[in-house]
């Protein structure tokens, strides 16, 4: 995808101003009023120097009071202008974050397969914060600089066109410096932001996998990898700072000093004959400050503006990502029986290597089937296709005789319950993790927990159903987390149940409780189970053995053992391992 240029990014950012156009207009009006007040102050001072410096009277005193009151007025107006800009800024960032998060929620699993979680987090947090800085501070300073520059230049021209022409000689140099800085800084700042995203990704990965890191003694390796990225970030941050130091404030300050020198030289050589008064000279010195100071501030903030623009581009990349989850028809079709059929279904994650190759099977209402096979044989891919996490390439997937694409996404999620090998619990309470924000009564939550035998351990917890759940449910055992996942699934009353190695990580003692819960869950529901332990699926109506994306054997447990094929070898291997243990 072609990257948009910075002007396109800026134009798009400004489109977010539309809902706040009146507040923005008010903020801009206050900025303009601040500029007018600011430029009136040197005029008052010039008039005082030329007419009242040697003859202080009541008028002069009033003029001095007015002079200082203008400073007070400038401060008050500037405060409210900055306040309104800040309100607009945070509102815009809220809207951008909402759009980014909303689009992320719709993306397909393939996007998350290739994009590190830390990188996504960085875009929605760090990059949007950079946009906030642009709107709240930098943008207001840029607009203020335009106002001040324009009004100041106009005032100088009205006072004396010759002195203004001397100062104007330096303006091409200023714009040349700014343009040169912009060209040289883009690549450096882009790389710096990219490395910051890499730091976030490495950090997120390390925190999430800290148990594995410590278990395998990988602390030093990860420290070295983190430091390598961190050091590279420092290198590019220093390069960015070097550009700032060369092109920004020092260069602008030198040009301002040169403007002073030109004015003083002209005043020294031609001041008297040209009729330039001391008051006029004072006013021009002040206006040179007013002309250069906003330009210095703008160039000082230019690196932050560049960072904000690059960050905005990264956020818009996320908002514009169109690798959505597979499309569904918003029809009124309902899943009533739960009959599932795969007809010659083929699927690939990358479009090159076939993961499922012509898979066909049928599950009748209320039946249980199971898939077994070596790692990479395609078991979980069947679930991914059935859950519509990925789009399949060819063939048909039918539910109750209708193409799976005919059902709405909401209907599929409501009628198909999924229990994973590693259940995920959210930070919250037991109740909120079972409800999952569904409209369920307390009685329905408790019934679901009792149904899967989770109520026994819940009643022993302080707070019971209001007991806190830590991140990922780390305070509970694997078996307890799995029972809560069962309760969550039962509470949604699915017609189809999918078990993805639901007992693989559970000890033998807990497995009996979980297995009893599973038996109750399966009654009256069409069930597809992916099994690692063959002992857990011996009562299945049909067991399918997969190898390299193809079904190589199928039948009931006893039938497959009698064939003495791949299933028989797997069963003997597991039985032998159990005997040894």
TrEMBL record:
GO terms of molecular function: ABC-type oligopeptide transporter activity; ATP binding; ATP hydrolysis activity
Primary localization class, coarse: membrane
Keyword ATP-binding: yes
GO CC annotation: plasma membrane
Domain ABC transmembrane type-1: 25-307
Membrane topology of this protein: Multi-pass membrane protein
Transmembrane segments annotated in the record for this chain: 62-85, 138-157, 163-181, 257-285
Subcellular localization, as worded in the UniProt entry: Cell membrane
Keyword annotations from UniProtKB, A to Z: ATP-binding, Membrane, Nucleotide-binding, Transmembrane, Transmembrane helix, Transport
Top-level taxonomic group: Bacteria
Domain ABC transporter: from-to ranges: 340-573
Pfam families: ABC_membrane, ABC_tran
Gene3D superfamilies, A to Z: ABC transporter type 1, transmembrane domain, P-loop containing nucleotide triphosphate hydrolases
Membrane among keywords: yes
Protein name (database record): Multidrug ABC transporter ATP-binding protein
């Amino acid at each position: 995808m072609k990257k948009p240029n910075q002007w396109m990014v800026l134009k798009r950012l400004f489109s977010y101003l539309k809902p706040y156009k009146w507040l923005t207009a008010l903020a801009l009006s206050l900025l303009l009023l601040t500029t007018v007040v600011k430029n009136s102050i040197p005029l008052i001072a010039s008039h005082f120097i030329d007419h009242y410096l040697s003859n202080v009277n009541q008028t002069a005193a009033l003029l001095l009071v007015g002079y200082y009151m203008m400073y007070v007025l400038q401060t008050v107006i500037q405060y409210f202008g900055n306040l309104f800009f800040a309100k607009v800024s945070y509102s815009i960032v809220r809207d951008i974050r909402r759009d980014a998060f909303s689009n992320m929620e719709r993306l397909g699993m393939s996007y998350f397969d290739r994009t590190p979680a830390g990188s996504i987090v960085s875009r929605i947090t760090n990059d949007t914060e950079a946009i906030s800085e642009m709107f709240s501070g930098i943008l207001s300073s840029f607009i203020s600089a335009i106002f001040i520059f324009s009004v100041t230049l106009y005032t100088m021209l009205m006072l004396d066109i010759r002195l203004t022409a001397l100062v104007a000689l330096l303006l091409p140099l200023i714009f040349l410096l700014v343009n040169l800085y912009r060209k040289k800084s883009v690549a450096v700042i882009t790389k710096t932001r990219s490395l910051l995203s890499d730091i976030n990704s490495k950090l997120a990965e390390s925190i999430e996998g800290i148990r594995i890191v410590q278990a395998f003694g990988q602390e030093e390796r990860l420290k070295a990898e983190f430091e390598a990225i961190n050091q590279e970030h420092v290198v590019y941050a220093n390069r960015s700072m070097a550009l700032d130091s060369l092109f920004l404030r020092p260069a602008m300050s030198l040009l301002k000093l040169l403007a002073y020198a030109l004015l003083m030289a002209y005043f020294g050589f031609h001041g008297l004959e040209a009729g330039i008064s001391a008051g006029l000279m004072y006013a021009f010195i002040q206006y040179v400050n007013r002309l250069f100071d906003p330009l210095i501030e703008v160039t000082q903030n230019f690196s932050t503006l560049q960072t904000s623009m690059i960050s905005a581009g990264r956020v818009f990349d996320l908002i514009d990502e169109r690798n959505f989850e597979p499309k569904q028809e918003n029809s009124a079709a309902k899943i009533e029986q739960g009959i599932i059929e795969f007809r010659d279904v083929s699927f690939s994650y990358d479009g090159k290597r076939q993961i499922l190759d012509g898979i066909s099977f049928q599950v009748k209402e209320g039946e249980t089937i199971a898939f077994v096979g070596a790692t990479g044989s395609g078991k979980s891919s069947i679930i991914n296709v059935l859950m519509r996490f990925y789009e399949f390439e060819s063939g048909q997937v039918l539910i109750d005789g209708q193409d799976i694409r005919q059902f709405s996404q909401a209907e599929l999620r409501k009628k198909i319950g999924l229990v994973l090998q590693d259940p995920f619990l959210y930070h919250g309470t037991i109740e909120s993790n079972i409800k999952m924000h569904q409209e369920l009564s307390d009685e329905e939550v408790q019934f679901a927990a009792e149904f899967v035998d989770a109520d026994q351990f819940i009643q022993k917890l302080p707070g019971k159903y209001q007991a806190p759940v830590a991140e990922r449910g780390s305070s509970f055992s694997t078996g307890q987390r799995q029972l809560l996942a069962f309760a969550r699934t039962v509470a949604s009353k699915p017609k189809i149940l999918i078990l993805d190695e639901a007992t693989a990580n559970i000890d033998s003692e807990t497995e009996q409780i979980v297995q009893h819960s599973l038996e109750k869950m399966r009654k009256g529901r069409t069930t597809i189970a992916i099994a690692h332990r063959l002992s857990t699926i011996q009562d299945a109506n049909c067991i399918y053995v997969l190898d390299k994306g193809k079904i190589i054997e199928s039948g009931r447990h006893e039938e497959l053992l009698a064939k003495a094929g791949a299933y028989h070898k797997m069963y003997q291997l597991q039985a032998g391992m159990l005997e040894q243990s």
